Q: What sequence folds into this?
C-alpha cells in the first residue's frame, strides 16, 4: 500500500489522539514541510496546485492496481475510485455556507476551478464515485450528474461505548471540532448566553486557528459567558473520552457538514446530539427525524431551546440517549470495511487485472 498525502503524516500523533495504527509500504507528500503557510487561502491554493501537478504522474506510472482519491475532490484523469467526503470545491459556489471563508474570492475560485475540471472530466469515464452520506449523494447527483454509492465512514464506536454506562452527568455541552473558519464555532457564546450549562469546545488547532480562537473568546467575554465557555486545544484522546463521559449533549455547529464522525462517537458515549438542520448529521445520522436519535436546529435560538429542554427533563434525555446509542451501531468500522472492499473489488475488475 502506498499513501500520498498533502502533508507528511504524523503517525505518532494519530496513534495518540485516535488510537490508530496503520502500516504503509511507501508514503509521499505533496506539501513541503519547510513552507510555513498559516493562511488558509494560501495553503489551499498551494496544496491544490501541487495536487494537480503531481497527481497525473501516478496515473502515468500505472504501477498501482487501484488508485483511490480521498481528497474530497473529483478529478477524473486520475482515480479509479473517488471517495468524496465533503462538498467538493468545484460546486461550493452553490453552497457558500460550506466555504472555509465566506467571501466573493472563494466563490469565484470555486467557479473557475469547476470550469477547469470540466475540461478534463472526459479523460477517465471509469471512475467509481463513492461518498460518505446521502446528503452528499444528492449534491453530487444534482450538480455533477454522477452516479454515486454511499459508504458511511468508519467510526470507532467500540472505543466510546463503555462511556455510555456512566449515568450521572453534569449540565455540560461538548463541541468537538477543529478550530478553523467555516465551523460556525462563533455561534457558541450566543447559544451559551441563553442556557444554564457549561460549554466545552475541544479539538485540534494549528497556526491557522488563532483568529477563530480569538473570535470565540472575544464574543464570550462580550456576552459575559466566558466563565461557561471553555476551549481545549490539542488534548490527548483520553481527555475527549473523559469529557464525553460526563456530558449530556453533543452540539455540532457546522452547517453543510458531509457526515460528522464526532456526532456518532458522542452518541456511542451516551450524549444526545444536537445538529444543524442542513447536512449529513441530520439527514444520515439522525435519519431526518426530530427527537428520535437527537435534534436539529436552524438558529442559535432553536439550539438553546433544545439544550435547555434536555437539561431540564432528565427522563427525556435518557430516553433519546438510549436510542442514539443503538443508532451508532450503524456506522461501525466493520460495516465500512465490508462495503468499501466491494467497491475496491469492482474497480479492480474494471481494470481487468
A:
Amino acid at each position: 500500500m502506498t499513501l500520498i498525502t498533502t502533508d507528511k503524516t504524523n503517525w505518532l500523533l494519530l496513534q495518540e489522539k485516535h488510537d490508530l495504527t496503520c502500516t504503509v509500504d511507501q508514503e509521499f507528500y505533496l506539501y513541503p514541510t519547510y513552507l510555513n503557510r498559516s493562511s488558509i487561502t494560501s495553503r489551499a491554493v498551494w496544496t491544490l496546485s501541487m495536487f494537480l501537478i503531481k497527481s497525473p504522474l501516478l496515473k502515468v506510472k500505472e504501477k498501482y492496481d487501484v488508485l483511490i482519491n480521498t481528497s474530497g475532490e473529483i478529478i477524473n484523469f486520475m482515480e479509479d475510485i473517488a471517495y468524496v467526503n465533503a462538498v467538493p470545491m468545484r460546486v461550493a459556489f452553490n453552497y457558500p455556507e460550506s466555504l472555509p471563508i465566506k467571501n466573493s474570492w472563494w466563490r469565484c475560485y470555486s467557479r473557475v476551478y469547476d470550469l477547469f475540471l470540466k475540461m478534463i472530466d472526459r479523460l477517465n469515464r471509469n471512475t467509481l464515485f463513492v461518498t460518505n452520506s446521502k446528503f452528499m449523494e444528492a449534491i453530487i447527483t444534482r450538480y455533477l450528474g454522477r452516479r454515486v454509492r454511499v459508504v458511511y465512514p468508519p467510526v470507532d464506536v467500540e472505543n466510546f461505548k463503555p462511556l455510555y454506562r456512566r449515568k450521572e452527568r453534569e449540565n455540560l455541552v461538548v463541541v468537538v471540532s477543529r478550530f478553523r473558519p467555516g465551523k460556525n464555532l462563533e455561534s457558541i457564546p450566543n447559544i451559551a448566553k441563553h442556557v444554564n450549562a457549561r460549554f466545552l469546545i475541544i479539538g485540534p488547532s494549528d497556526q491557522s486557528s488563532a483568529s477563530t480562537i480569538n473570535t470565540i473568546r472575544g464574543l464570550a467575554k462580550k456576552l459575559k459567558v466566558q466563565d461557561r465557555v471553555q476551549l481545549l486545544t490539542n488534548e490527548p484522546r483520553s481527555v475527549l473520552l473523559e469529557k464525553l463521559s460526563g456530558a449530556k449533549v453533543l452540539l455540532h455547529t457546522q452547517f453543510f457538514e458531509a457526515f460528522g464522525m464526532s456526532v456518532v462517537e458522542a452518541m456511542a458515549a451516551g450524549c444526545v446530539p444536537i445538529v444543524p438542520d442542513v447536512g449529513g448529521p441530520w439527514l444520515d445520522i439522525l435519519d431526518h427525524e426530530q427527537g428520535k436519535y437527537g435534534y436539529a436546529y436552524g438558529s442559535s435560538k432553536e439550539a438553546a431551546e433544545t439544550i435547555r429542554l434536555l437539561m431540564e427533563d432528565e427522563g427525556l434525555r435518557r430516553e433519546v440517549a438510549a436510542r442514539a446509542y443503538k443508532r451508532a451501531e450503524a456506522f461501525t468500522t466493520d460495516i465500512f470495511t465490508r462495503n468499501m472492499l466491494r467497491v475496491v473489488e469492482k474497480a479492480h475488475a474494471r481494470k481487468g487485472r
Q: What stands out?
A: The longest helix spans residues 40-61.
